[in-house]
Amino acid sequence: MERTRTVTWDDTSGSLEAAASMTGLEYMRAIAAGDLPAAPIAHLIGMVMEEIEEGVAVFSIEPAEYLYNPIGSVHGGVAATVLDSVMGCAIHTTLSQGAGYSTVELSVNYVRPITAETPRLFGRGLVVHAGRRLATAEARLSDADGRLYAHATTTCLVMKVGSGNPGG
Amino acid sequence: MERTRTVTWDDTSGSLEAAASMTGLEYMRAIAAGDLPAAPIAHLIGMVMEEIEEGVAVFSIEPAEYLYNPIGSVHGGVAATVLDSVMGCAIHTTLSQGAGYSTVELSVNYVRPITAETPRLFGRGLVVHAGRRLATAEARLSDADGRLYAHATTTCLVMKVGSGNPGG
Amino acid sequence: MERTRTVTWDDTSGSLEAAASMTGLEYMRAIAAGDLPAAPIAHLIGMVMEEIEEGVAVFSIEPAEYLYNPIGSVHGGVAATVLDSVMGCAIHTTLSQGAGYSTVELSVNYVRPITAETPRLFGRGLVVHAGRRLATAEARLSDADGRLYAHATTTCLVMKVGSGNPGG
Amino acid sequence: MERTRTVTWDDTSGSLEAAASMTGLEYMRAIAAGDLPAAPIAHLIGMVMEEIEEGVAVFSIEPAEYLYNPIGSVHGGVAATVLDSVMGCAIHTTLSQGAGYSTVELSVNYVRPITAETPRLFGRGLVVHAGRRLATAEARLSDADGRLYAHATTTCLVMKVGSGNPGG
Questions:
Q1: How many CB atoms lie within 10 A of CB C15?
Q2: B·D CB contacts under 8 A
Q3: Which residue is closest to A167 within chain D, CA to CA?
Q4: Residues D67-103 pLDDT 10s
Q5: Do residue D151 and residue B138 have CB atoms under 8 angstroms apart?
Q6: Strand B99-110 relative to strand A99-110, pairing
Q7: What structural domains does chain A harbor?
Q8: Which residues lie closer than 8 Å to B2 by C-beta, 6 or more apart?
């Protein structure tokens, strides 16, 4: 086994300009359709967008050794990244044109270890509350047989794009 | 700018056997010293072990475009991964020989966006409670000037190595 | 309006002995049926057990001024208490005889303020993962019209009763 | 032992008007000094304000049977309430005149059970990040000997008073 991985990604700096004239759902669908580039980190960790609907986002990932922590399993940050992605994207699909969001809090529960032998995993994010200034979502990470590995919730701040640092 | 990244990592399958004859602190120090291989994911995302003391772990990371989400900043999963790492490793340093741990819960607060222009970030994890079956830790992700970007807490289950799936 | 509240509660010290010969579901149903006393705090804050099924618990509460914080609304701790109750009790219903649990982590998202004008609220807790050592649950706090006020998740440690402090 | 508790509280409806002409620190100090009424829930659960400084709030509580859950210990919602209080009040002390806040997320870690035999507990809340729109805080619940029982973090949304439902 050769332990090397090479990834390439696209310049996404034009995406935000494109986003300014789209609703959140249109933006997410443009990425899903390949009309706008996928997130660089999706290439890095091998995360694939599977489904985008209003209030819903599904991504998948193949557990692999290059995602390992030092104690013999896939790093918990990988599940956190997939769950954060599907919840953020689910919230993004509910935003009107000119609105953006920023994650302010993420909580993850790990219920089963993930190793290179674990089958492909699917993160499914659902919006729970979509308010004018605040949105929350929940997500589960399961295999195709429905075995649950982790679940999560998030809180996002919703704002006009360009209104500055949400933590500021 | 060339948008490609190649990483290599080491076979870590021997590490757990090595770990069985070490305390947690010895194991973490062996990784820090390069006597045992770093975690594959550390190579993938460019995370570097900076400091290991009993109850403390510090890692650093260089924000970069290959870590980006689809909305123009470093993906929140990256901060989650660094914070999870330093908290897990801080807890690991408190474990006696033959003990292991598993993260059961991770909560992250994001207070400032991270972009490719953000300077190198340092995650510092500290053990809060080290019990026989349960350990908790907290961590902050800051730049060298002390500007805070995210903070986190975690809950880990402590167990004898080989006692099976902690979520089971 | 007279601003005074008097509550009485029952001695529950015999309940744990009674619990030792019951499954978790039997224990919860005995409380619901009034064969075992309700929790003292349920009397204190006016929380009522509405429904107990395997993996599910529903409690209700009437928002009122005596539950107020210093900024003109029902204290966030009240929603936390109801949500923690329904999740803990939902998990309790899945336990076999001789097993107990302890909450190690609770995360609450608040999406709408609660005042004395808010109608009666119903907390509904559902088990997400029921493992041998670890259980997780989720809950929502809504009014009868389905308006959501808060939601939550929890992590509980499952253990043999009498095996000591789970945090130890 | 008589199992009854009678509490009285004050009308706090005038407090918010008083608050409008004060900074957050002045408001918290007015409550601490008894110039403005304590929160009704503080009377209900026996919670006492011990210390208010800029960015810091300390409350104490005496563990007692009337705070019990159905499994023989003080309900986890009580620790959540004290921790939420000291974090919210710590954030409140950092607010300028005309600003308010709303808790959007609370995470609590429980590390040791609390019973009626547990000595008086002190919750200490500290601001971690005080931004224009977002603030975070952390807190610990310990006895006078420094034994830790629970710890927590929170995320609050900061806003102009009267700008409406933060979850909206």
A1: 21
A2: 39
A3: D134
A4: 999 889 999 999 999 999 999 999 999 999 999 999 9
A5: yes
A6: antiparallel
A7: 15-160 (3.10.129.10)
A8: none
